[in-house]
Specification:
mainly beta, Immunoglobulin-like, nine-stranded mixed beta sheet, four-stranded antiparallel beta sheet, Clathrin_mu_CS, membrane, Adaptor_comp_med_subunit
Length: 379
Amino acid sequence: MVNISPSLLLELLQRIARVTKDYLGVLNEDSLRKNFILVYELLDEVIDFGYPQTTSTEALKSYIFNEPIMVDAGRLPPLGPAAMFMQGTKRMPGTAVTKSVVANEPGGKKREEIFVDIIEKISVTFSSSGYILTSEIDGTIQMKSYLSGNPEIRLALNEDLGIGKNSSSTHDYRSSSGGGSVVLDDCNFHESVQLDSFDIDRTLHLIPPDGEFPVMNYRMTQEFKPPFRVTALIEEAGPSRAEVLLKIRADFPANVTANTITVQMPVPSYTMRASFELEAGAVGQTTDFKEGTRRLEWNLKKIVGGSEHTLRAKLTFSQETHGNLTKEAGPVNMNFTIPMYNASKLQVRYLQIAKKSKTYNPYRWVRYVTQANSYVARL
């Protein structure tokens, strides 16, 4: 028996999920059920006798003969990170990332378009007084190409992008768009990326393979401005009662809106019930006390940049407290998604596609998304 690296298995599972999504368009229970034979055929080619062979969507095209059965992406929530793009806006079609890279559009033609997504996951820890203790950004530039003929692409990033902690940085926090000095701790690139001119003008040259793939992964621990400030306070209000105050401030521009915000706070194990008081005029907010896990939950449908929201909760205990509430409660955890915003200020200056003819002009979509990875406030 051989011990297999857990990292290898996790990477393989992630790549299998990505290849399956490339073929099915959307990864959910309905699409897997309807395309069971196709998925079985994919797995049979990806793994032989227990050994991984290839996870390249382009290489698998020669061996896969079943056509995908397309499903309605809105029927069931997708199982992957593409869930954040399923609700379309005027700037980006919601159905675009749910298309199969191997199936043709109705009428037999393929729409020429390419998607570049800058996805950042933020980890921040706040002290009880609201100061930042730790902060980190894990980001990726994700690309999904529906271009025929695999033309060469030039992807230009910030001109003054620095890599390594010795680089200097001068952030302009007043805007989430436009270029600016950005310093990354480290980064790595997809095998298709050519870095001949990257050190000169911060431009990436590549011929994109079929399907979805990460062009560049990066990490940043330099000082940056978190999108939210979270403060939490718990105080005794009697022998067997306490009051909780949660406050969220959105420190991003007013033209940006955060979606699906969830704030959770563990409370002492002897908490019997909780009553909530929302701010006046609160819309799209819900509260709940999870008795099984002894947690307060605060859900906000959206938060507009520059706004501030407050929640008060009154707790009733089954026994008297002994002044250890801050040790027995918390920390506060927050989850959110902010479309068209990125905390690192990493920007795509332009996306250039080699022209096949004078009339060749494919659609280009560049999108930014920031998510919470570990957003914690101590009491």
